[in-house]
Design brief:
Blueprint: E1 7-11, E2 14-19, E3 24-30, E4 33-39, E5 42-50, E6 56-60, E7 64-66, E8 99-100, H1 101-104, E9 106-109, E10 114-115, E11 142-143, E12 151-152, H2 153-157, H3 163-166, E13 177-178, H4 179-206, H5 209-230, E14 232-234, E15 239-242, H6 244-251, H7 263-267, H8 272-278, H9 281-297
Antiparallel strand pairs: 1-2, 2-3, 3-4, 4-5, 5-6, 6-7, 8-9, 9-10, 11-12, 13-15, 14-15
Helix pairs in contact: 4-5
Amino acid sequence: MRLQALKLFYKGSKLSVLHTSGAHHTVVSANHQNLCETNSKTAQKRLLATDAQDSTVAINLQGQTTIAYSPFGKDSYPLGSSLLSRFTGQSLLASGIGYLLGNGHRLFNPGIMRFHSPDSLSPFDRGGINAYAYCANDPINRVDPSGKSFRSIFKWKRGGYSYEKLAPRLEERNPTLSKNEYKALKKSISKREKQVIEELNWALSTGEQSTVNNTIAKNDILQGQRSKLDNLVLDEHNRYNPDIIKEFIDNTPNLKNTTGKLAEELLAPPTPQSLINMIPEDLLIEDMQVRLRRLRDG
């Protein structure tokens, strides 16, 4: 029996390209959702409809085909098909035995509703008490794309709102954020500011100067990010964009002569110090010498 070589390419925790000697299959995705599949043997594209778990529930290819799943992922689609995106957006092995989660880390079998090998993070870490259970036996509200530890669907979906993804966008020339992105980033920055304060207090109490310097550097970065975030204003489309007026005022040079002074400063009555500044320097020196002479002569 001739063996067929397979090349697998992943995008995050999901299969993106399957390359064989005869063809290659590609899954197009965005924001954790698989959108369509292509096959090099044909020009046709499969449009995918997914549910909250990113499981493919409908395929549009010369008509619509629906797929039903059991809670643990056993589906109604033909086994011999070339569909890559199935339960939670993962790819079923050609043999139909299950899914290799975590880019091949562990094999999950939806038929027996268990993993074929124990979790290295069980029983005292995030893997849960049962080393072979899938999502702690709650596959409706949890997912486990890594094959190591489960997480709630809500937190998994919020991966697009993470600090690591949103903070770099503040460095763009004209950063723009949606309302949800703005709230998520603001909350993340506030959380990290509290952590920095705790780290700084600990470092000061222990005298770790290198830790103090690193913590101060972190705080400077967070303060810069908060300043840029505060400069964004909400528009009529519920998106946050740079406040052009505030940016213009902040970047306007403050001239050193009277044209750069406020009207209140120009109209205010002179102070004793300002009167002294108006007297010529040679007269001030002469007056000071007279006062010193009087003090010396008694």
